[in-house]
Amino acid sequence: MLVLRENDILTLLGGLSPADTRDLLAKFHNLLRQYSNSVYQKSSERLIHQPERISIVTKNGNTALFMPSSVTTSTGVKVVTVPVKGLIKGSINVFSPDGDLVGVLNAAEITAFRTSLAVMIPFELYQGDKKNIIVFGAGRQAEWHIKLALLLADVDHITVINRSGPGRIGELFETLRSNYPKTQFDILLKHDPKYNASLEARLKDAAVVFCCTPSVEPHFPASYLDSKQRFISLIGSYKPHMQEIDAKTLRSGERIYVDTKEGCLVEAGELIMANVNEAQLLEIGEIPNGTVLKDSGNVVFKCVGMGVMDVFMASELLEMAKVKDLGLTVDDF
Ligand SMILES: NC(=O)c1ccc[n+]([C@@H]2O[C@H](COP(=O)([O-])OP(=O)(O)OC[C@H]3O[C@@H](n4cnc5c(N)ncnc54)[C@H](OP(=O)(O)O)[C@@H]3O)[C@@H](O)[C@H]2O)c1
């Protein structure tokens, strides 16, 4: 049994090349295709099992989430706590098909990585301009969106927009400025005296907008965007009152791409407030291999995340760690 600490996971994910990332993306997309296909299969025929997650709110107000799933070759459960104060923490336990515990992994970095990787599926299929990117939020999710976008696309300019300070991004940008000398990295904070005018101007210039916050208010009104096509992703909302964009922006494409129709219709505030129905959604797992996105209007993607994503990524990391001889081995568990 292998234990992967946060630092082991950072080492493994930090060493990914563009080619490694594309290989991982292709495998991940196939997993989501199996998920989308599984709704048409009898339970006994499915390779993917994704029951609903369970949550417990303790007397102290800490929320524990239990996310079970199986991809047949691995079965697992992620248990994370959203504490009243501080960052989400927890672990992913991975079991062999017949029940041996094969790995225990720190969940925080994997969660941010797999969500950002899910966004990279439609981002990679999107054929439009990707040179100027705006990111709302300065946490772990924002960090991985930025790192993966730089691995997969030719980016001229990235602006992070955040509520308070630069968060994790200040330090990240220092490193990225030397690794990507041709790319411009900026931070715009809400307390900037010219915030609204600057936000509108930057959004007009942007080709891609990644939203990575638990906001309950849209980050901008639809009027801040012109008719130019953009890629817009949303990963932050997970409750009916949460929203990162308004209904008009949400509906600004031919359809809304999602990771899971079932999950998004119950959890994504933007979709619930805009009264979106299932027929307006397309799961990225329903996009056949070899397809490129040639939509007119914006390409909007909402992801609420699923346990199968964690078990898939945890299993991949365990294989990568064996090759690189990383982690703590526990024999005779
Ligand atoms: N879809 C999925 O599968 C999935 C998976 C994991 C997490 N998430 C969600 O993704 C979001 C970001 O996660 P993270 O791990 O990056 O969190 P994080 O490290 O805590 O960062 C959160 C970021 O959001 C900003 N923020 C917090 N509350 C806000 C509000 N009310 N309005 C505007 N900005 C706000 C914070 O700004 P300050 O620096 O000013 O505090 C910070 O920049 C969260 O909503 C989280 O629940 C989604």
Total of helices? 10
**How many strand segments?**
15
Q: Please name the fourth-level CATH homologous superfamily of the largest domain.
A: NAD(P)-binding Rossmann-like Domain
CATH topology of the largest domain: Rossmann fold
Structure, explained:
- This protein has 333 residues and is α/β, with parallel strands linked by helices.
- It has two domains: 2-110 and 308-329, ornithine cyclodeaminase, domain 1 (2-Layer Sandwich), CATH 3.30.1780; 112-306, NAD(P)-binding Rossmann-like Domain (Rossmann fold, 3-Layer(aba) Sandwich), CATH 3.40.50.720.
- It is 35% helix and 22% strand.
- The protein has ten helices and 15 strands.
- It has an eight-stranded parallel beta sheet, sandwiched between helices. Strands 2-3-4-5-6-1-15 form a seven-stranded mixed beta sheet.
- A hairpin with a 4-residue loop joins strand 3 (63-70) and strand 4 (75-82).
- Helix 3 crosses helix 4 (140-152) and helix 3 packs across helix 10.
- The termini are close together.
- The mean pLDDT is 96.
- The structure holds NADP nicotinamide-adenine-dinucleotide phosphate (NAP).
- NADP nicotinamide-adenine-dinucleotide phosphate binds at residues 87, 111-112, 115, 137-142, 162-164, 167, 212-216, 235-236, 238, 303-305.
Give a quick precis of the structure.
The protein is of the alpha/beta class and 333 residues long. Helices cover 35% and strands 22% of the residues. It is built from ten helices and 15 strands.
Explain the layout of strands and helices:
Blueprint: E1 2-4, H1 6-14, H2 18-38, E2 54-57, E3 63-70, E4 75-82, E5 89-95, E6 101-106, H3 107-125, E7 132-136, H4 140-152, E8 157-162, H5 169-179, E9 184-189, H6 195-205, E10 208-211, E11 231-234, H7 247-250, E12 256-258, H8 261-267, H9 269-273, E13 281-283, E14 299-302, H10 307-324, E15 328-329
Parallel strand pairs: 1-6, 7-8, 7-10, 8-9, 10-11, 11-14, 12-13, 12-14
Antiparallel strand pairs: 1-15, 2-3, 3-4, 4-5, 5-6
Helix pairs in contact: 1-3, 1-10, 2-3, 2-10, 3-4, 3-10
